[in-house]
Amino acid sequence: MKHFLNDFKEKICALLGWLTIVGGILSGLWICCYTMFYGGIVQIITGIQYGGDAMAFAIAAGICKILFCELGLAIPMILGFAIGCFFLDQSY
């Protein structure tokens, strides 16, 4: 029975490790592409469309979103890899 529980623990830890890594990659891609890159483009277009002095900040913020969108990719991926590798290390 003890051997069965150890095997079960190893399989669950490996599964959690891989799911965490894949989840970190997918959430990083979603944050990077959809929220920051596409959101920055839409924000620039909306700022140009409505014009005015108040929208200059919206245009600048949209440009910053596009320029720094890779940070939205790096942070979840690093955390996902770190936590996932911890679980994978526990499984072996």
Which sequence of SSEs, written as H and E, runs from N to C? Answer: HHH
The portion of residues forming beta strands comes to under 5%
Average per-residue pLDDT, rounded, comes to 86
Overall structural class, as computed from helix and strand content, comes to: mainly alpha
**Termini Cα gap:** 19 Å
Rg over alpha carbons = 21 Å
Range of helix content: over 70%
- As residue ranges, the low-confidence spans are none
Written overview of the protein:
This protein is an all-alpha fold and 92 residues long. The chain has one domain (22-87). The chain is built from three helices and no strands. The longest helix has 49 residues, at 2-50. The chain is rod-shaped, with a radius of gyration of 21 Å. The model has no long low-confidence stretch (mean pLDDT 86).
SSE layout:
Blueprint: H1 2-50, H2 56-67, H3 69-91
Helix pairs in contact: 1-2, 1-3
Question: What's this model, at a glance?
Answer:
The protein is mainly alpha-helical. It has three helices and no strands.
Task: List its traits.
92 residues, mainly alpha, 3 helices, 91% helix, rod-shaped
